[in-house]
Amino acid sequence: MPSPQQPLSRQELLAALEQGWKTYLPRLAELSEEEQTRFAQEQGFTRVQDLLVHIFAWWRLSMQRTTWLLSNPPLPPSPDHPLFDKEVDEWNAQAIIEHQHLTRAEAEAQFAATLTEFERFLRDLPAAAFEQEHIQTWMRLETMDHYEEHRLEKRYDS
Hints:
By secondary structure, the protein is mostly helical. It is built from eight helices and no strands. The longest helix is centred in the middle third of the chain and has 23 residues, at 48-70.
């Protein structure tokens, strides 16, 4: 695997999605309801759907930030810019609150739909986007690093 400083190609990011996030819901379904709930709670979430919301909300934010950055805005963004105006913990809490109404099935459906959207987003990004440091960081975080943080295999491999 490339070092953290080495830029990742579109193909490497798509392969990471294929090997990681695209296996997430099927692997989650292999766990009993008790194991799923325990895993979500170990991850800091009350419900499994809150964990799923947390994940897909970050994909959405990274896609929005990338789209914004590709519009050649002035950098750095202003501190009150809506894509950058919250600390991580505050942003995480807000995402859970905004999606609190979702059932487990609805959260899984949004996870799957957002994953498809994220994959298409990566496929359609202009080649020059992969040369931008911020975009590289966001895409690495969402395809690899965030997956490792919430990886099911950590505790539940047989």
